Amino acid sequence: MKDFKDRANGEMLASRKVNRLFEAISRLAENGVPYSLILDSLSADVGCMTPSRLTKFVTSTPSMLVWGGAVAIGMAGLFRYQMTPGAQGREAPHSWPAGLGDIVPKPGRFTLLMTLHPQCPCSRASLHELSQLMTRAREKMDAHVLLVKPQGAPANWCNGDLWKQAKDIPSVSVSIDDDGKDASILGATTSGQVIVYDASGAIRFSGGITDGRGHEGDNAGLSALLGLIHGGKTTVSTTPVYGCSLGVCRLKKQ
Amino acid sequence: MQPLYVSPELDKQIEARAVVLRSEYDLALWKRTDRMFAVLLIVQWLAAVAIAVWLSPTAWEGLDHRIHPHIWAAVFLGGVIAIYPIVFVVLRPGETTTRYLIAIAQMLHSALLIHLSGGRIETHFHIFGSLAFLSFYRDWRVLVPATIVVALDHAVRGTFWPESVFGIATIAHGGAWNMRDGWCLRTLFSSGRAFAEQRNLVF
């Protein structure tokens, strides 16, 4: 019996279930059941398989650790990218800036300005959060989305998904920011930057309203704005902005 | 009518035969389920690439653009996650290690898909779908590494990037655990109980 077990163990990669099979075989053999009868009862499925050197290497514990390490490094890189904010521009004007064209604050209402890169995939989440915000705050706030159109951009630069998504949010106006002039005035350098002024024209918030690059869900910026609009106070007045670079500074230098 | 007499020796032989048949059945089931997961892992990998290409094809800086890191992640990270368990399915089908690796890979795919889809709540249901698929093995232990991966993911991110789990920069909800982990644990316990009951029917 020992010989049989040794041979079988060497030939098969035993799992716990297979070990149970051997125990059963041992028990039968000890009770005098002939091996030929026992082996006949086993299907060809539980047959022998000699692992090659390659199989042994690929399925060894070190190779599993290498796989685990590679996945961990990849995941960490992905989350690091998600949680890395865009470049911070200069501080937004503390009071309502001149030169923003038709956009003017209305008495008794907050005014939210959001600068977007029209092609930025991360900003879909910013607009989703803006939509959530406007659902709960449209009675007290006006929102304006500025789609930055750099110099030299094609005519249809802004006619993308973000334009449609912004247009579909109630109480939100959408306009094109030619050459990024408005973004420059506001000091915005990253897509998704939100700046909120109160009725007196004083700045109350500047930052992003997502918790990561292109990531939807509850976040500090959204909570702060809801607190400001419904309670008059903010837990934070600035948050990191996650999105693509507007390229405003670079364009200014050209 | 006289009661059927089974000698102790025959009784032992019947029991042993039942064990052999049960082992054969389990092995065949595990191999079949391994093959199903091998196909599923490839489909998920392709789905991850498709989602990345569809949702975030390019990263921009003004007028300049480059391939979005999500696409590289979907192709390479998704590939690494999928291929290694598939190698096990080919080389060591029906084994415990293969099942555990598949369970881990399924949960890693959930994390990847959630990330690529921008944390959309709908994608989180991939976790529960995966747990249901893993129950095809009828081996409750497979759900343990799967649940550990989900909990570990939340614990690590909750510690280093709390915003990515809780939406705020500080942990104030009883540590790096949240409701999803609780539901996963609940699924684990209920599935384990179900398998135990199913086993009692056989033995």
Provide the structure class of chain A. alpha/beta
Mean pLDDT of chain B: 84
Number of E strands of chain B? 2
In DSSP terms (H or I, runs of 4 or more residues), the helix count of chain A works out at 10
Form type of chain B: elongated
- Helix amount of chain B: over 70%
Oligomeric state of shown chains: heterodimer
**Proportion of β residues of chain B?**
under 5%
Report mean pLDDT of chain A, rounded to a whole number: 83
Features:
heterodimer, A: 10 helices, 5 strands, 42% helix, B: mainly alpha, two-stranded antiparallel ribbon, 73% helix, 4% strand
Protein model, in words:
The complex is a heterodimer of chains A (254) and B (203). In chain A, 42% of the residues lie in helices and 13% in strands. Chain A is elongated and about 100 Å long. Chain A is built from 10 helices and 5 strands; from the N terminus they run αααααβαβαβαββαα. Chain A is an alpha/beta fold and 254 residues long. The relative contact order of chain A is 0.15. Chain B has 203 residues and is mainly alpha-helical. The longest helix of chain B has 48 residues, at 8-55. Mean pLDDT of chain B is 84; it is low at 171-176. The interface between A and B is large, with 63 and 58 residues.
Task: Report a brief summary of the structure.
Chain A is an alpha/beta fold and 254 residues long.
